[in-house]
Amino acid sequence: MERIWRMGVRSKIGQPGSGFVRFAFRKMASRSVGRTGQNYSMTKQQTAALHQEGSGDPLGANSEIGRKLKQYYDQLITDEVPERFTQLLSQLEETEPLQKGKG
Amino acid sequence: MAVSPAFKKDLLGAIPNLRAFAVSLTQNADKADDLVQETLVKAWDKHESFQMGTNLKAWLFTILRNEFYSQMRKRGREVQDSDGVMTERLAVHPSQHGLLDLKDFRGALEQLPQDQREAIILIGASGFSYEEAAEICGCAVGTIKSRVSRARNRLQEILDISGEAEYGPDAISAQVTGSNAA
Predict the structure, then answer these.
(1) ipTM greater than 0.85, yes or no?
(2) Cα B76 from Cα B29, distance rounded (Å)
(3) Among residues 11-30 of chain A, which lie with CB inside 8 Å of chain B?
(4) What is the pLDDT of residue B103?
């Protein structure tokens, strides 16, 4: 399964470095997380963090290494979260039930 | 104390980032997912030690990283030390047309010493500040800075990027943006 996941992601890459593709990746990230029923505040945070990169940053948008790093990482975070993790959290929840309301 | 629903929701939200970091550390998708699983279990057990309102992502990254190194030690594999002996491997040759291929980049990243790789990922990709990365790695801010800079230089060396303007969308526009940035 994991192998397929990796291959699949690779094939999704469009033109490296294209702004549109990076945007599309983020959209995909939000969707894949959303699909499993979770909110995607983390993805938004991530996006915000990416925007924060200043121009004086040695790994910022003007750096080839910086761009490649983000491209590499974006490819990884847009992967759909495997079932095993949602299942795992549900199992953990059964052993230690969630707190009901406040208290 | 029971685990709060918000905590569970935030854990789920952090999974994509945890997996990306885990792959960067292990360089292996299956091992990475096992590591993420361990991290989630540990985080769940230790949820009381997490202070709501503080940076959950940084807290989880710390757990994942500690788990990774403790597994490495258990397996008796040597963790590459800071100024570790650089593995003498053949440099990855970038594609002839100049555009740096993502596969080449991944190969170059694999050649970095562990501590440099994690530093450059935390700063350049995961979006952490130098202070946060230092906390995650349990070292000084200056150490992170020097690891990032060595990682960057080493990547440029492996990928044969002698100057940032040399490779890019095209030679001319790279020179233009290069001069704007300076």
Answers:
(1) no
(2) 21
(3) 13, 16-17, 29
(4) 86
